[in-house]
Amino acid sequence: MRPGNRARAYAALGAAIVALTLVPGGARRALAEYGDVVINNYSDAAGVRPAVFPHWFHRVRFRCKVCHSDLGFKFKAGGNEINMLKIIDGQFCGACHNGNIAWSVENCDLCHSGKPGTPTQVHESTIQQLAAPAETPAAAKK
Length: 142
Description:
The chain contains seven helices and three strands, in the order αβαβαααβαα. It has helices at 3-22, 43-46, 55-59, 64-70, 84-88, 127-130, 137-141; strands spanning 37-39, 51-53, 121-122.
């Protein structure tokens, strides 16, 4: 990225962060779905909401190798040292989220939509919270 482009990207990022903090109600609340990855390696410390990566939304559009081989994402939630400087520089998410292929970093709330304090994790199915555990055959005979 050329120095002039980087300076404009940083300025836009700063303006977007300030705008989000000043708007009453802030950004929209995200609803996590099964398989979404919450990324909170640095968000809480930076004073922004965690990013929510919609894994299956991307998976139905691209083969695994696009992100995990070509772009270098590890197969583990929290296993990548992703930060905004790297994204602005075209690494990780920034390979596509550059304003040409997909939205750019100026649209903070499209990614940073998680609940503050949520740890980095893969969002699992909520059925475990709703269903009672099934009895095992051995337990049922007692």
